[in-house]
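My current task is to audit a protein record that another person submitted. What it holds is a sequence and that sequence's fold in token form. Thanks in advance; the entry in question is below.
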Amino acid sequence: MKKLQIYNLETAIDFFLDVVQRKNSGQYSQWPSTALNNHIRSLFDDYDTKLKSNTLEQLLSIVWQGVDETNFKDLYSFDAKKFRDLYQFLTTTPNNAVDKVCPYCYLDTSESLDHYVPKTPFPHFSANPQNLIPCCSECNSKKKDFWRANQRGKNVRLFLNAYIDDVMNQNFLQVAFSYPNNNIVPSFSISQNGMPQNLFDIVKTHFAKLKLAKRYRDHSHKVFVELRNSIKVSRKNGLTDQLIKQINLDTIAENEKTFGLNHWETVLKKACITDPVAYNYLITH
């Protein structure tokens, strides 16, 4: 759910051809043919056009025969230098800091590159840098090949795309608290809150299929402990609760500028500070 800068060091087709060139031996020595090369170029142009117009769900799948499908799929290797360099580009911020958090969940560290449009049935995009997104293992395993669905005769995307879906300033993530057995338990949910319906539909399926509500809840304990300890130290040093809350809200506002309005940890901290019951729980437990 964070926005990424799309790879711009070379064109997507040049990236692809360089990957092929680096494999210039064995099964790739005479591949692709001139005719296939021209076909690939047209497919990459179509991908680029649909990415820019936010219509990737309209891509047509192609049935490849024998060696072509195998060769396309085998082009991708996360351990290959070309793809490691791509990963480094995508996980380096404009101010040259390293940020490897998974853009799908904003929770775990990305460990590979996900094919947004899956290699099955789109093996020809396995080495398209515009189709590769840093991803953690859990999101990758949950996303699998189910990236779109047909609803009422129309293809729709099921997952946010970090290159085209900018939701960092869309305030859709919220949290409420319950206190079973005198324990604080957060419940994460989403609301449309003025978001365009087509984008909110993608957010809903993205949130549900990646099981983000449960994953955020399961990672919340550390946030509670760190916030509780920070409040405790501030109170020991003579700060009033009013001042502690204001300092935390000022920090949260700065974090929102950096991480967006739906960074789960920031949303959780803000709820703890602004909810009187939650705040009282933190200072009394």
In short: The two ends are 33 Å apart (CA to CA). The chain has a mean pLDDT of 94. The CA atoms of residues 29 and 85 lie 24 Å apart.
